[in-house]
Amino acid sequence: MTLSLTTMDNDNVKSESLRSIWKFLICKDVTSLNCQMFSQHCSRVILTVTVDDIPVQRNVEGWLYLKDINLPCIDAGIEFLIGSDAPKALEPHEVQRSEDGGSYAV
Fold it and tell me: How many angstroms separate the CA atoms of 91 and 43, rounded?
């Protein structure tokens, strides 16, 4: 099976490096309070992200107005990326606005 990917940088890129195809998947957050159901999704053998791309607490400690943001430490690999085809999963629950052109948190 060939997977066709469209991203911000590329259109209709063919990928044959599939790991598996899920008929049904439930994805939960680290608290298990929020979950999202997915149907018919694929997993690739190689993803272009690493655990170093996951934000950690020290990333927000430089901004006083983000002091209430708590990023839990996640001891896991990355096997599944949620894209724009799952808008409910990407919907922000809360937004901390930026100050003086600094970072913001979603």
Answer: 22
Token pair of 32, please?
């298990």
pLDDT tens readout for residues 12-55:
666 655 555 666 778 887 788 888 887 766 666 677 788 888 88
First-last CA distance in the chain: 36
Give pLDDT tens digits for 65-91.
888 888 888 888 877 777 777 788 788
Q: Give me the half-sphere count of Cα atoms (radius 13 Å) on the Cβ side of residue 104.
A: 10
What residues contact residue 33 under an 8 Å CB cut-off, 6+ apart? Answer: none
Non-local CB neighbours of 39 within 8 Å, separated by 6+ positions: 23, 24, 25
In a 3-state reduction of DSSP, which class is residue 56? coil
d(CA 22, CA 19): 10
Place of tokens 């913001």: 104
